[in-house]
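Onboarding guide, step 5: your first structure request.
Type a short instruction followed by the sequence, for example:

Predict the 3D structure of this protein.
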Amino acid sequence: MDNIISSPEDNTCSEGEEERKATGTRANHADPQGFSSSQSAAYTLHEMEEKMRRKLQFFFMNPIEKWRAKRKFPYKFVVQVIKIVLVTFQLCLFAHNRYNHVNYTWDNRISFSHLFLLGWDSTREINAYPPGAGPLAVYKVDEFYNTLDYAFAGYQNLSNAIGPYSYNDENNNQVDPVFCQYNYKEGIINGFNESYEFNSEVIESCTNFTGGKSVYFSSKDMLKSAGLEINFAALVRAKLMFSIKTINFRAAGPITPPDCYRFDVAIIFDNEDHDGQMSLTLDAEPYKLICKGDQEYVTDNKIDQVLRSILNILVILICSASFVLCSRAIYRAQLLKELTVQFFRRTYNKELSLDGRLEFLNIWYIMIIVNDLLIILGSAIKEQIERNQFTNDQWNVCSLFLGTGNLLVWFGVLRYLGFFKTYNVVILTLKKAAPKIFRFSICALLLYAGFTFCGWLILGPYHMKFRSLSMTSECLFSLINGDDMFATFSIMSKKSPMLWWFSRVYLYSFISLYIYVVLSLFISVIMDAYDTIKQYYKDGFPKSDLQQFIGETSIEEVSSGLYRTQSSTSLNALMNSLFCCNFYRSAYSKIGGRSSNQNLI
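The system replies with structure tokens like these:
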């Protein structure tokens, strides 16, 4: 196979060779078959057009037609079928494990809230709409210290918890919690005479809560003895931090051992707003540990890990093969495009149109390459997770890669359904409507942005659905789809009668404009494209100059064996006579090869 880049000597036509060609042309006024020089050139050009047309026809065939034409095995199709099975199976296993992991960590966070948060109740565990309770917060100095005392008492009496919790120590000895406060460097408020002293630099100071096993513990006294008396006017944030170990038996199975975890618990007092309300939250970051359990489960753990690693390796290998095949197909398609451009330029003295050039760019292959990269990255992260070399964030990153990659894999199935007329209508309709939808969406988004910013600014302080820019956008998008309309009207506060009336005008105008006008126009754009595609099926699709050159290929012609002849070599010889320089001849060699067994794709 020739190289795509030839040496300078090959790319430069020698003058002697040109003279010999010219002399031979003048000397031979007729070929052995009795044709004149002009007739011979016309015959050669016609033969070259047929060879080029046949090559392009084969390039644009689907895998079934290529099999009929040259008995070419559809490697990429088989790889995609194997990939979709392996990737989906891998995703199902990972989704099950991730579901168990997320729910287990969330349930433990709820347990810690009951054990360590003063004032926590079960109503806060349910994401109700509208919320059934206000934020958990402290409002008095005594409440702040009582909350610290309650958390420390719960940590001291960890053995009273139903959960199998232990201290973060090999001998299960209590490890002192760490209390940290973050204060402005200087923050003194004298409200009686409207004066203050302020320095915005935040300083961190920490100390250990050393209460031992004593019955009485006072966080206020302990902080005073440690020299950390709290100035609430300067306090920005405070944290009480400790770690707890536990083991999860729920995931244990025939080949799956129990999981060991360490939870880094942080009770956070947030006073950044300085509005008299210090919000109280609990965060529990999980870390998976290597268990030191029964030898039987250790052996089974190795079996489970090996099986999962084999699946991950198979997925990486099949996606790598898919990546290489699709990249190779795109590369060869671009070579054939350049060859076709030169053919039109030299033979017809015209440039190939933009539509004709875009025919060689296969968007499906680009999408497959993207999902291959996503799945390879996700599988690599998944392997690290299953080897316990992970943090909690990697679960979400891995699920993002694998989920998006699997989504694109299933989208790729549409390419093969598009080979059938019945299913191809959807793809062609979307393709036809895409430019109009894009232009229409720009106008609709401008109106949407205006309503979003207006609603956020005016209604935000008085309406819970408009408190932030994202919430405003989500509320308006829900209204477009007819969701929760009456609640949106009724939740509006009546503190300001003027804004209450404005909210009515605002909501009525938005709903009327988008539901009755914008959505109707959006549907009409798609229906217009659908009607156009149906008409194309009756009267014929518009063809680019490339498609007009290629023409129609009948089933009988495909199955006749015409494409299994030595067309590649003969066409290459004609290209040698047509083009002086060697670049595109070698490019064609990369595409067609020198035998009938070397095909385009």
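Each response can be followed by summary notes, for example: The chain has four domains: 8-61+553-592, 75-98+300-418, 131-293, 423-539.
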